[in-house]
Design a protein that fits this description.
alpha+beta; 10 helices; 8 strands; 24% strand
């Protein structure tokens, strides 16, 4: 099978052949991570794709970030307006070490935008990142949320070789707390009265959740779901993810 001839793909497939590449020293692992195709290529499951924000997503992003109910669940500090939307699109054109962030638009297989996903505060030295995932319409999207989460887990743990992803959830968002636990995260702590919710103007506790790479691969329920939803083969131009450690 002929592969695209570029440094990112070459390093990606070379690292796939190294069964213990996650144990490489930081300075040896970094080149394959920095050039990894996950930064640029769509990620595909059986009914969804994660695509880096592009010009055709501008209207969707503008409307979505003006939806208070979505912003409150996803990230109340994200802001809105043309400059914020432009930031989503511009980050796609920058190098990962500059942005330390991977934003995706979640779309169906016809390209219709459905939601947002993100790995933020990427820390290659400590191999960790904050994760965010959100859809504007719930509960209709709950199954798609699980599928999108499997794609994000695959990108984080299998492709970028992160050791941990973590997230913060407001005390008032009980549904998100339950969903995060259902996805295998552990509640690591509560920061009391830690934040002022910009939407409600109330002070809130912030719950911290974390998921380790080894916990994900040792969770038979999650890996079973992942293998059912993350397609084993992809059309040209899509990154071939696999749920293997």
């Amino acid at each position: 099978m002929q592969r695209p001839v570029e440094a990112g793909w070459a390093l990606h497939y070379a690292s796939e052949l190294q069964q213990a590449s996650e144990h490489l020293p930081h300075d040896l692992l970094m080149p394959s991570l920095v050039c990894h195709p996950v930064w640029h290529h769509p990620l595909k499951s059986k009914s969804l794709m994660l695509i880096r924000p592009q010009e055709q997503h501008r209207t969707f992003l503008t409307e979505l970030l003006q939806t208070t109910s979505f912003v409150e669940r996803y990230n109340s500090f994200i802001g809105s307006g043309p400059a914020v939307v432009e930031g989503f699109i511009q980050r796609t054109r920058l190098q990962p070490l500059q942005t330390k962030q991977l934003d995706w638009v979640i779309v169906d297989l016809l390209g219709k935008p459905l939601g947002l996903a993100c790995l933020a505060d990427l820390d290659f030295e400590n191999r960790r990142a904050e994760w965010l995932l959100g859809f504007p319409v719930l509960p209709e999207m709950r199954q798609k949320m699980v599928e999108a989460a499997m794609l994000l887990f695959s990108a984080a743990f299998s492709s970028l070789r992160l050791e941990k992803i973590y997230g913060y959830v407001y005390q008032s968002n009980k549904a998100a707390q339950d969903a995060t636990l259902h996805l295998g995260f552990q509640r690591e702590g509560v920061m009391r009265s830690h934040i002022r919710n910009r939407i409600t103007a109330q002070r809130e506790d912030l719950h911290i959740f974390g998921l380790l790479r080894k916990e994900f691969f040792e969770n038979s329920r999650l890996t079973r779901i992942g293998r059912k939803t993350v397609a084993p083969k992809y059309p040209a131009g899509c990154l071939n993810l696999n749920l293997s450690n």
